[in-house]
Amino acid sequence: MSDALNIIKDPTLTYRQELIALARLGESTDDTVRYSDAYYAAKKKGALCDLNEGVMPYRPRYICPDYELLFQKGCKFLELAPPKDLLEAVNVLEIFYCHVPSITTYPVYVGDLDKLLEPFVIREDREYAKKVLRLFLRSIDRVQTDSFVHADMGPEDTVTGRILLELTEEMQLAVPNLTLRYDPDRTSDDFALACVNCMLKTAKPSFANHLMFVKEWGERYAIASCYNGLSIGGGGFTLPRMRLYECSLDAKSPEDFIENVLPRYIDLQLEYMDKRVKFIVEESTFFKTNFLVTEGFVKQENFTGMFGVVGLAECCNHLLGIEDKKKGFGMNEQATALGLQIMDAIEKRVAAHEAPYCDAYGHRYRLHAQVGIDSDGMDDSPGTRIPIGVEPTMLEQLEVNEKFHPYFPTGTGDIFKFEETYLKTPDAILPIIKGSLRSGLRYFSGYLENNDVVRVTGYLVKKSEIEKLRAKKQSLNNVTVFGMGAQDGGHALDRRVQHHEESARQ
Amino acid sequence: MKKAPVNKIIPFSNVDGPGNRTSIFFQGCTFNCLFCHNPETIRLCEGCGACVDKCPAGALARDAEGKIAWASEKCVQCDTCIRVCPHSASPKVKWMTVEEVLAQVKRSAPYIGGITTSGGECTLYNEFLIELFTEVRKLGKTCLIDSNGSFDFEADPRVLSVCEGVMLDVKAVEPGWNDRLISYPRDRVLKNLDYLLKAGKLFEVRTVIFPGRDRENEDTVRYVSRRIGGSCSYKIIRYRPFGVREQYQKVLGEFETEKDYAGHFAAIARTEGAKKAFVV
Ligand code: SF4
Ligand code: SF4
Predict the structure, then answer these.
(1) At B254, is the secondary structure helix, strand, or coil?
(2) ipTM value of the model?
(3) In B, which residues are within 8 Å of A429 by CB distance?
């Protein structure tokens, strides 16, 4: 059977999923963009990975339109006037979303929904506003059927924010992903607690370290896709990743790795990024003709390349000859120190590289702790995370994370699974989130054991939808299949649970 | 330097008082409750050595002074030692200084509202607690005592002046039932209930509800509720056989107390004025 035939005969794919797969297949027949032989060799070995971005980039990977601008002046190309009330506002957004490209073909950032909609919501009766927002969320879930579709809110408490939380809980949807920008001075405890409550029941929102992101991006940043920091009115050109464990297999010692092996792979990945970025800007039509650009919803200078890494834990363990993961990275000071040394080296070399375009960031790419893909199995843990199944206590896990999160302006995060008694004690979780963000954590996600909607590595899936795929039925959400792969290959749902151990006595 | 035997420290706990707290469990207890679900915390190790050979990981040995030494890095937490100990003790106990415990608290400090000391019975180490609490308060954190009520707080109220309050277990009030259940006269506990209430240091009262013990449960709940009214929360705990010594499971029950059954006593508590009664 040909690849195309395989796709159209796969009973688990919906029509749109087939279409996307066939488009990808078509794209792969071209070889205009060529890289060095050394790059191809590294890719073949699995040391570098292009995350199946496709050989011919015809749009940037991630696009974060300026929806405020859309509401101010409307959109000529789509013939949309600035909305005057809530119904018009959600209708404008629903239409616009269908025209925002991305690597997944779905919009990875759907806006700061609370800020955008608040002026309209407060003019309406609350029940009516809630009904409209319910239909709006339903439309996102059923039309933008991909868990990398991401909405943001906060830092302030708003009526719209509250309604979104209520609906998130009532509707139990995997789409959109949701982030609260948490700012200790602007986010009230009451609102943050409402978010914790919602997180326990639906695995969202996650908490972003607002002060940290603002320092790097300014106030106008988006959290898109899983947890990616990007500029509003900009985005990410491309995101390849170094699979650090596979890279480390070339090294004779930690020193050899840092001095010789690492620079070689970094440079190959930079070569890949430079060529792609140039192709997207200079050859593809996106930055020349797409209405998002010509009408100013995104500006080319606000895009940057995302330099991804994955598998730091396994890399350090391998270099130090640690076989037992339980005694390795995250639990072992020497391994963690080596991890920091490696990250310093990567950060320095990437910062020394003059990238094409990326004007708003001094012509520099920015680091990203890539969250892993289903085919990674157990070889490469997401970004700089401690391998699943051997996590130490939550306190120790946070301490390690806090050291690594500052390296990654374009995103990193960790996920914590809570045992059921926490449902009654959200006030025991909020201080953990606040303390960790204050101590350098960038992004905190949590969910409750035994929920249907769960967070896999960065995105959300429904366990019930995974079961559908296992039964060879279709799942509307494009991402469910990744969730199944991550569960099978990476045991991604088996992370350590934060227990109350035997602390309660009787 | 002052040292106390510490059974374990849990950096993050959501069940030992409000918010997120670090819980410190001291070894040794003044009671010997039938329903204790971690009976290995009741007594201090007597050095009999019965557990040493049974450890599958070689984590236990007799040291130069003849005491039992536990190598925590070798321990695989199988709890064999606890099961074979004939003295309701554990060899996995660390004698720690205030500084050592404080160092652990400091590590959790960014993420917690305070600490709770528990056990065993932490008030056995009153002087230790006073020093620890004084230091922990300097970090801006709160201190709560989890106590069985055997310590005479009225005679020596110093520790109360450096903590937010006491979470007090009132296990039984009817003398016959009390003596059978906890092997300690009830008067001290009930005196503490009144004294802590008067001193404004009663943070919470807890009572365990046993399956099928209608009268005993009701006696205790009514007594406590009339005393505390709405002044502090009243935690009605369902008996759970998990961890309870087998011979006592036969006496008290091999199944946990039903939610509805416990709820019935919470309702009684509320009619008696304990507005903040709830079931866990
Ligand atoms: S729990 Fe006790 S018996 Fe088991 S390994 Fe540890 S010390 Fe040895
Ligand atoms: S822990 Fe128990 S069995 Fe082991 S030496 Fe001490 S008293 Fe004996």
Answers:
(1) coil
(2) 0.89
(3) 14, 20
